[in-house]
Design brief:
By secondary structure, the chain is mainly alpha-helical. It is built from 21 helices and no strands. The protein has one domain. InterPro entries: Cit_transptr-like_dom, NhaD-like.
Length: 464
């Protein structure tokens, strides 16, 4: 479910400096892993996450069970802490630590979502989709074009928005060919997830690693070739089975609204500001994002002011009115609140001492390479966000190579199943029953080959 919009994704997780380690988190771990109430905390978290995984069946927003679980878990922790003689201020420090992490995440995500919503309102993505539909490409050419675009758009936008954009093209041009739609949808899911793995802004997990200080901003680009391999290997296999005929072109023209391209430019400037604030001023990147959002606010004010003074004769729908606070209101609040629940629930289990236990059990016994590769496979079933959050909270002793490895595997592991990422879940909903779980599963072996090949390339290129 690599979420960023439903959840939108994009794109960003902020500031995770040694989250729940005994000395690095600003508070002492409680170490109450054998307390009966601590076992109850685990059961509550597992039950909540089962409900998250069944979101599509239960029609229950994913934020609801995890927020409730977080509240109950911390209430139980407070009871345990009282029995262990923990002072009120110590417990409060643990809660406020998690609040600080969530606040930085919240602001970062809110800015990214606002920019994407503004670009959607200015018809930037609709114009790109219309242009692709006019090109008159063959099914096989469209297979490669949509996959390649998904690979290069997702590092800046999120995998969900990218998949929906490419999925709309696939359904519009090739909706009558079930084989083409299935293969092209799978290709887009793999490409969107792979594209996000080599960019600090491409996936929430990459942002988690970057802002925890585990990998430098430009260090992530060492994953570019492994990510390419992850996309290309299954694409080459599946392309052989894509129909070669040429569908008729669709004549649809969509013009970007005034200021749409400038908004795209401002988004790029905002990303640069985030990096600059972190690298030059040693400030959290969300400060740069908020500064960039202020530029967007001023620009949308300018667009509204200009439309009111130069187009008085137009009706309201044609004036180009753009209220930035409406775009803020349309942010994916389910996702934002989902992260609140995840951070506090996982942070609570970390405070009890379970993350340290897992860290010593897996990283010490199996070794970081095996553990990180297995964690990527787990992310095909369990959302990669709590997986990565837990690993950063464990803060195992790993070098740059291993942090890049878990970044790669957690980012692309969700491609193995259609339900393993937000991109896959969304496309199943928009394909009108053509792209299905079983249809994706039939090609999981090819995706697994890409997964293994990308890990091998990472070891070959970056292992030294």
């Amino acid at each position: 479910m690599k979420v960023f919009k439903n959840g939108f994704l994009p794109v960003v997780l902020a500031l995770f400096p040694g989250l729940a380690s005994a000395s690095g988190g600003g508070y002492e771990v409680l170490g109450a892993t054998e307390d009966p109430l601590a076992y109850l905390c685990i059961a509550i978290f597992v039950l909540a996450y089962i409900m998250v995984m069944g979101e599509e069946v239960l029609h229950l927003r994913k934020s609801k069970p995890v927020i409730l679980a977080a509240g109950i878990i911390w209430a139980l922790i407070a009871t345990i802490a009282h029995d262990y003689g923990v002072e009120h201020e110590a417990l409060r420090a643990a809660v406020l630590h998690n609040l600080g992490e969530y606040s930085a995440l919240f602001l970062f995500l809110l800015v990214a979502m606002t920019f994407i919503n503004t670009m959607e309102e200015r018809l930037v993505f609709d114009a790109l989709r219309a242009r692709l539909m006019q090109m008159g490409l063959s099914f096989r050419q469209l297979f490669w074009v949509t996959g390649t675009l998904a690979f290069f758009i997702s590092p800046v936008a999120d995998n969900l928005t990218t998949a929906l954009l490419m999925g709309a093209v696939i359904m519009s041009v090739g909706g009558d060919s079930k084989r083409f739609v299935t293969l092209a949808m799978i290709n887009v899911v793999v490409a969107a997830n792979a594209g996000g793995a080599f960019s600090p802004f491409g996936d929430i997990t990459t942002l988690m690693v970057w802002q925890a200080g585990k990998v430098e901003f430009f260090g992530f680009f060492a994953l570019f070739l492994p990510a390419v391999v992850n996309f290309v290997v299954p694409a080459l296999i599946m392309s052989v089975f894509v129909p070669s005929e040429k569908p008729s072109a669709i004549d649809e023209c969509v013009q970007v609204k005034p200021g749409g391209l400038v908004v795209c430019g401002l988004f790029l400037v905002t990303i640069i500001l985030a990096v600059t604030f972190e690298k030059v001023f040693s400030l959290p990147p969300f400060m740069g994002m908020m500064t960039g959002m202020s530029l967007l606010m001023f620009y949308t004010w300018y667009l509204t002011y200009k439309s009111r003074t130069t187009a008085q004769e137009l009706d309201e729908s044609e004036k180009g009115e753009l209220d930035i606070f409406l775009k803020v209101a349309k942010a994916e609040w389910d996702t934002l609140l989902f992260f609140f629940g995840i951070i506090f629930a996982v942070g609570g289990l970390g405070y009890l001492g379970y993350l340290e236990m897992i860290s010593s059990g897996m990283y010490a016994e199996l070794g970081p390479s095996v553990t990180n590769i297995v964690a990527g496979l787990i992310s095909a079933v369990v959302d990669n966000i709590p997986v990565m959050f837990a690993i950063i909270s464990m803060d195992p002793e790993m070098g740059n190579f291993q942090w890049l490895l878990i970044t790669l595997t957690a980012g692309v592991g969700g491609s193995l199943l259609s339900v393993g990422s937000a991109a896959g879940v969304a496309l199943m909903g928009t394909s009108k029953g053509t792209y299905t779980f079983m249809g994706h599963l039939r090609w999981s072996w090819a995706i697994a080959l890409g997964y293994a090949a990308s890990v091998g390339v990472h070891f070959l290129l970056n292992g030294g």
